Amino acid sequence: MQKWIILIVVFIIIVLSIFIISNVSVETEYTPETEIEDVELRKTIVTLYFKNKETGEMAKETRLIDSKDLLKNPYEELLNLLMQGPENSNYEKVIPEGLIIIDNKFENGCVTITFNKEAAIDLDETKRNDITAAISNTLIQLTEVNSVKVLIEGEEENEIKNEISNQVFNEISNKT
């Protein structure tokens, strides 16, 4: 009689084991619902500076952009993003519509930006300071940029140049 009880218990254990093993899912490789494309893998975060409408101070706005765009001409790409304006409705664009970037060059750690003369003449000191702060803070995030120089159709704009130099110096000293 004891043999039969032991056999029944063993049989029940075997049946339960088979049932449990068949219902437990074996760990499989995860397959995402949508495949990650190459473009999504190339994304990078950049920081742009715009004027906060409420406080009047420069504020950071981060954007996720294709890093391939930065490889061609990172200075032009960042400046174009600044000129397009902020995505945040609490921020305002600091580079006016008529101000056109004629050229930008990088040499010996310095980015030289040349603007058109017509639109630059109409800028008051506050607007120039906002433009220089936005440009210098945005470009200084690139490790190779040590300084920024602004030209108005080939001529140095003293007020803008001095402001940018001060901004860049402050940013560089904060980097180290």
**What proportion of the residues form beta strands (DSSP E)?**
15-25%
**Uncertain stretches of 5 or more adjacent residues:** 157-176
**Gyration radius, to the nearest Å?**
30 Å
Q: For the residues shown, what is the average pLDDT?
A: 77
Our count of domains comes out at 1
Protein model, in words:
The chain has 176 residues and is α+β, with helices and mostly antiparallel strands. It has one domain (41-175). The protein contains 7 helices and 7 strands, in the order ααββααβββααββα. The protein has helices spanning 2-23, 38-41, 67-72, 74-84, 117-121, 125-139, 158-175, and strands at residues 43-52, 58-66, 91-92, 101-107, 110-115, 147-152, 155-156. The protein has a 4-stranded mixed β-sheet with strand order 4-5-6-7. Strands 2-1-3 form a 3-stranded antiparallel β-sheet. α6 runs parallel beside α7. The protein starts with a helix and ends with a helix. Mean pLDDT is 77; it is low at 157-176.
